[in-house]
Structure formats: structure tokens, C-alpha cells
Amino acid sequence: MLLEDEPWVGALEGIGTDPPRPRLRRAVFHRIVAGQHDRTVEAVTRFNPHVVVHIAVWEPYSRATPDSARELTDDAATSILGAAAECRALESIVVRSGFEVYGRQRNAVTRPDEDVVPFPTCDYGHTLLDIEHTANAIGRRVGVTVGSLRLASILGPHVPSPLGRLLRMPAVPFSAVADPPFAVIHQHDAAEAFVAAARERVDQPLNIVSPGAITAYQAIRRGHRLPVPVVGPQWVAAKAASYLAGAPLADHVKEMLQRGRLADNARAAEVIGFAPTTTTSDVIDQLYRWPSVVHHPATKAVA
Amino acid sequence: MPARAEPATSAAQQLAEVITLPVRTVGNQATGLAGSSIRTFRAWTANEVDDWGRDNAFVNRFWSASQLRWSTSVGGSEHLPKRSGALIVINARRWSLAPIFAALALGAEIDRAVRFVGRPDVAPLGPMMQRLGALLPSEAELAGALRAGELIVLGAEHRSTNRQAGLIDHRLVGAAVATKVPVLPAATVSVPMRRNARVEIGRPVKLRRKRRGPLDELETADLLQLRIDDMLDEMGGALTGTPLDWLPTGGMGGL
């Protein structure tokens, strides 16, 4: 919808596994499941786009198990980016990545900027870095610009997020000895960043994150949840308990709770003029205000 | 009959109230104390942290508590930039936690977050120091913070007295050189037996001869050490807080 409102955007087509929720005015949607390589290639090459925005990334335990998420993400990246390389009109590729590529090994920079060499320490980070490498290789080969938006954890009412699900549980585990800070990004701000990156034809990685930071304990307190301090081997029990409670604790989320996850977003403001509208604390507050079930009254009586 | 029973009941009640009164009072006091403790704990732990994990309310409480031990005065704060970043290099006496107290004292003086270098990346000490504004002792971390316009205190190698500054890590100074922010020397003087401490900030250092390579940070670090030594001399050299300071062993007194 944001791209539809952009004056520089002519024809607009999208591919997704699930149909879009809002009514699209002029964009054409193709429902293609990740892995249907031929259909993806056909749809992309027939459209012959100038700009490809690739956001088909499955976060582990958001809608799929870690193994399935990696497989789906790899399939989607291979098909879409491979098909984009065949398009003569292609000028720019923008791909979704994440802070997880920086890794949180001991003595890792607290707030890495884009110049820090990626060194992922979780599976999801490796998956995201693979997407960046694939896109960059294609960009070099066919001579187009490639921009990677390294996003903080996305939270929003329509985004399935393992972090959001965990924080909304009645009792939430947190690291008793560290409780490090992390930052998040609202789904709307993330979408704005993709639009701005596509408009500016970004040719470098950019960190996208809301200003401010919060610790898990502070987030739990803001949501009036029961904080459960966890130390060392107790994380195994916490992981099992959260799995049984319906909010599996993904490895990259556990790493964030134990080691924190921040990044410097100054370059995004310089390069694409991106300024998030929601702070990290506000995103967390909104997380707890979103209703679990949204009731839409019928617009037309049928009986 | 009821008229005769009533006084007996009320007397028993009165007696019971007299007996239970201290219990109730103590109980109420304990409940109130527990309640206020929980409220205080919740208020103390519900703070927000900034982009680098610094908890301003925690810093203020720590600074207030530290004033029971130290009375720190700051001079030369007019040399600090108003908004942009700068690296302040100080001397450090062993066990004095000089970078921490210098950062807190400067922060209180100029009402701006001042960070310091030297947190371990090990829980729980590392995260606790991060709440106070500590950064990892790495060049990339320092460069990122300086680019973000932060004021950072860097301690020289520890010495047993305040007579001279220790070696200054030129790689960390190199982060300031690379980001083109001012580098200021500062002398810190504290005495274990006394309450008073002093942080004196000098003018930004500039090399007379501009270097293109790594000699820039090496010579800047050497110049910083020299300037801090000069400032320490002006402040009276090493002090012990005892009558030993009166002995004329250093020409003008002091050890």
C-alpha cells in the first residue's frame, strides 16, 4: 500500500505465500508458495521489474519451525533473486536482512554500525547473511545496485514474531545475571524503510531500528507480566516451558535475551532519510495493547 | 442476663486489643515496609535505558550513593564540546575506579551522559557497568560511540600514585583520531584517606606536525600522557592524605 502511494512507482506486482490483508488498488498479487520455482520465475520475468524488493524471510518459530523457515527462506531467495537477474530492466535489488548477521560473540561491538564485519552466531543470522551474499553476487554479476536492510526484531499487530509472542505470555523468562538491552522496530516503520530504500536505489547495507532500547525485564514490567529470572541451565527448562505454552523460544531470541541486540542506525538517516516514528519503548507498549482477537462486525447481513 | 454479660465481653475485647495491639502494629509496619520495598524495587528497576544501554536513573542513584564517600569537584568543563563527541583521557590510580567516577562527575557537572571505557563482557559485572555507561575497550566500539556524538572517558594504565599518568592505549586514541573528534587530557587526583577528589580537564591536544599514518595516534597518545603529567605536577603530585605530604621531598613539598 505504501508503494502504491509513491509517485515514482508505475506498475506494481507482488508475490506472496499468503494473500495480502488490505485491499490493493493497483498492485497485482500472485499467490505462489516458496519453492514453486518455475511459477516464480515466470511471474517475475514476465513483469520485468526495475526494482525488486525481497522480503520473503521466514523468522524461526514465527510461522514455521527453524528447519522449515530456513528451507522456505532459501527457496524464496533462490527463486526470486535468480529470476530478477534474468530481467533486462532491473536496476536495483533491496533485500531484507537483520541484526542477527552481526552476531553476539564475546566482546562483539555493543552497537555495531554497517562497517562491522558480519559474524553471525545463530542459525537465523547465517540464513540472513546467505541472502545478502546471494543478492550481492547477483548484483555484481548483472551490474545492479543491491541494498540490504538489516532490521531489528519486527513487532506489529500483523507480524508473527517469536519475540512478541514470548513477551505476551503471562510469565516471561529473562536473564537474571545480564538482562541486556535490545531494540526493535515497528512493522510500519520497517515498511517505510523498504519504500525509502527502493526509492533511493540503496547500494549498501543499512541498519533499521527504532531509537532507544529496552531490557527484557523492563519490557515485562511494562506489560505487567510475571518476570521469571533464569540463570544458566535453567534456560533449558524455560525453553521447554515456553514451547509447551505456545511461544517457542527461538535460538536468536534466546541469544538476544542473554546477550542483547543493538545497532547504530545513523547511516539510514543519512542515506535514505529514514526516521522511525515509534521508539522501542512505544513499540513494546503497543505490543501489550494489541488485542489477541480482533472482531470485525459483518458489513452485510446474510440472514 | 444479657446486661450482665455485655460488660464482661467488652472487657475481654479491650484486654484482647491491648494484648494484640503491638502485634498488629508490628504487623502493619512490616506489611508497609515490605510494600514500600517492593514499590521502591519496582520503581528502581522500571527505568529506561538509552541506545547504549545506559540507565540514567541508575546512574543518578549510584552517583548520589558515591557522594557519601567522595566529594568530587570538576574544573575545566568549558573545554568540553557542547553537543558533539570527544575523548577525555585521564590518569588512574590503582583501585580508585577513576574512569567511573570521572565520567559520573563530568556527567553531573555538564548534565549530559558521559560514558567510560573498560567494561568486561562477562555477566553480571559487564551488564551492570553497561547500565552506568561503560563501553567495551575496543576500537570499533569507541569509534561508533564517538561518531554518535558521545563524550567518553578513557583511563590510562593504572599507577600506584597520582604522581604520573600510565601508558595510554594508542589504538583506542586512534578511534578518536579516525572520527576526527577532540581529544582532551584530564588529571584526576584522589587520596584514599580523604574524601575530596578532583577532575581537571585540559585543552584539546593537537599535534604540531600532522601525520597521515598510525604515527598520528601514537604521538597523540604520547602528547596526552605528557599533558596529564604536567597537570598532575600543577595539582601537587602524589598525595597520601597524611602528614607525609608536608615533607619537602619534591622541592615544593609532597612526595
Report on this structure:
The complex is a heterodimer of chains A (303) and B (255). Chain A is an alpha/beta fold. Chain A has 10 helices and 12 strands. Chain A has a single domain, classed as 3-Layer(aba) Sandwich (Rossmann fold). Chain A has a 4-stranded parallel β-sheet, sandwiched between helices. A two-stranded parallel ribbon of chain A has the order 1-2. In chain A, strands 6-9 form a two-stranded parallel ribbon. The longest helix of chain A is centred in the first third of the chain and has 20 residues. The radius of gyration of chain A is 20 Å and the shape is globular. The two termini of chain A are 34 Å apart. The mean pLDDT of chain A is 93. The longest helix of chain B is centred in the first third of the chain and has 44 residues. Chain B has 2 domains: 45 residues; 196 residues, Glycerol-3-phosphate (1)-acyltransferase. With 255 residues, chain B is an alpha/beta fold. Chain B contains 7 helices and 7 strands. The interface between A and B is medium-sized, with 31 and 26 residues.
What keywords describe this structure?
heterodimer; A: 303 residues; alpha/beta; Rossmann fold; four-stranded parallel sheet; two-stranded parallel ribbon; 12 strands; 17% strand; B: 255 residues; Glycerol-3-phosphate (1)-acyltransferase; 2 domains; seven-stranded mixed sheet; 7 helices; 45% helix
